[in-house]
Design goal:
38% of the residues lie in helices and 13% in strands. By secondary structure, it is α/β, with parallel strands linked by helices. The chain binds pyridoxal-5'-phosphate. The site of pyridoxal-5'-phosphate (PLP) has 14 residues, from helix 5.
């Protein structure tokens, strides 16, 4: 195994945000199961790229060859791993995915136009648009427990929001926090709606390296020139290879007119890319595109799937069973999304507060992922199997006798 599975004690010692950022009210530590970090360090090729660069004297400003090399590696990765043939010249560097979202809001959407955010949503999608003068229209997903897909985009409500004048839709695919990988049919159905309106799609594909089952991952912009013409796609190696400390993203703009608008405004965003983040992404993408693939990433997926199996065993319930808690296996990401609303909650306490104070596990509060999800929680199982076992114990200790 090349993956290092750090224990809770080791992660606290390392001082990661997930393991030090949330404590109980009395200040005691919690099991870290919230922010999207994994307890696996990073891949050997990434470590070597960064350490080798520093030892070799690469500690200066961003050199001119770096962004083109990153674009080449990104294009090769998209082609080899996701089957999207995109020219390196269509790929721009960026400081981060959220930085790219902010620039998209400022440059390619009419000032003040509303932004459609399917919920549950990655928290900043609900706060960044208003900070840039764009109100958010939340569109709760269709939820069908028991159905394989479980979560689906509500196209009717998306159409109504377009009709009301929305200027952007934020598409998160793979979908944090539901774990969905949208199928080609779903993406085409979305395109059929959006094609009738002037709406830009910001397609956040940061979790695409983390597809856990055999679902094919398809970029919305890869459907064809019409979808690409209204789409800003943002990708990064930072989730798959667990290197959020090295901020770097890649923005894919196959449409020439849209790219020109972007490039007229993206100097600062490109300049602020972290050079080690770019070297890390190049090493990650080149390895994943090579005939042997990226064994580290494959091992990570084996561990995370094992954690899903553990949750399945502990919390599986058929749609007809009367179990209060049901685990939905994500198609992608190590993030899991739980409905605690059938459990008896005392007073106003939300599940994240109860899980933290009673079980000692820190999760993301459902309310921060969209209205109506106040009694949901997002639980990160990108961790060692022993830690996943402790998380299962913490859930059971918080809600004893729930089965
Ligand atoms: C869906 C999604 N997009 C973006 C980000 C953050 O990306 P960046 O650090 O490049 O802004 C995250 C981090 O958790 C995420 O889950």
């Amino acid at each position: 195994m090349s993956v290092r599975t750090y224990s809770a004690a080791q992660m606290r010692q390392a001082g990661s945000l997930k393991w030090t950022g949330i404590t109980r009210a009395d200040g005691s530590p919690t099991l870290g199961a919230w922010v999207a970090e994994m307890d696996f360090g990073t891949a050997p090729v990434v470590e070597e790229a960064i350490i080798g660069a520093i030892r070799g004297g690469f500690t200066g400003y961003q050199p001119t060859w770096l962004a083109p090399r990153l674009a080449e590696a990104t294009a090769a990765y998209q082609s080899a791993v996701h089957g999207w043939q995109v020219e390196a010249g269509a790929i721009r560097p960026a400081r981060s995915v959220l930085g790219a979202l902010a620039l998209a809001l400022d440059t390619v959407v009419p000032a003040g136009a509303a932004v459609i955010v399917p919920t549950p949503a990655y928290m900043p999608f609900l706060t960044i648009p208003p900070a840039h003068g764009h109100p958010v229209i939340e569109v709760p997903a269709l939820y069908t427990p028991g159905n394989g897909a479980v979560w689906a985009l509500d196209l009717e409500r998306i159409r109504r929001a377009c009709e009301a004048g929305a200027g952007m839709l934020i598409l998160c695919n793979p979908w944090n926090p539901t774990g969905r990988v949208l199928s080609e049919a779903e993406l085409r159905a979305l395109h059929a709606v959006l094609a009738d309106y002037e709406v830009v799609v910001f397609s956040d594909e940061i979790h695409a390296p983390l597809v856990m089952d055999d679902s094919p991952f398809i970029s919305y912009a890869s459907l064809g020139p019409e979808s690409a013409a209204h789409t800003v796609t943002a990708v990064a190696a930072s989730k798959g290879w667990n290197i959020a400390a090295l901020p770097c993203a890649q923005v894919i703009l196959p449409d020439e007119a849209l790219r020109e608008r972007w490039m007229a405004a993206d100097d600062q965003l490109a300049h602020e890319m972290n050079s080690y983040g770019a070297l890390a992404a190049i090493a990650a993408y080149e390895t994943a595109s090579s005939p042997g693939g990226e064994p580290w990433l494959e091992e990570v997926k084996v561990i995370v799937r094992g954690n899903f199996d553990m949750l399945d065993e502990a919390f599986y319930s058929s749609p007809t069973s009367d179990s209060a808690l049901c685990f939905h296996r994500p198609q992608a990401t190590y993030l899991t999304w739980w409905d605690f609303s059938a459990l008896c909650l005392e007073g106003d306490a939300s599940p994240d507060a109860q899980l933290r104070e009673v079980g000692g596990v820190s999760t993301n509060a459902g309310r921060s992922l969209g209205a109506g999800f106040e009694r949901w929680a997002r639980i990160n199982v990108g961790c060692a199997p022993e830690t996943a076992g402790l998380i299962v114990e913490a859930i059971n200790a918080t809600y004893p006798g729930m089965h």
